[in-house]
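Render this sequence as a predicted structure.
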Amino acid sequence: MRMTEISFSGATPIDGYGPGFFRVAGQVMEGAMLVTPTGARSWGGYADAEALLALVGETDVVFIGTGAEVAHIPAELRATLDAAGIGVETMNSPAACRTYNVLLSEGRRVAAAVLPV
């Protein structure tokens, strides 16, 4: 699915997604990924809390995309992120991509850690 075009003032939007991949700033990324206003990289999924903790101080909220369906994230991961002061919102990955892009276009300090659909 192709996302709506919005002006992002040099930030990194999610352009689209499909089965097993995401398109970010014109490049295809396969598998789970973590995207911030400055770039995107592979993400190790729920077991990779360190990548999310590295966002402390530069991100107010992380949208965690749980794949095609909404699911709970592990309680330990949520507790770790809450203790670090990072807000967490879980939703399916398509909704996480859209929400990330909208708030990114507003200049908000957001990130998206998403599992493929």
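Summary. The first strand starts at residue 14 and ends at 18. Residues 93-105 form the longest helix (13 residues).
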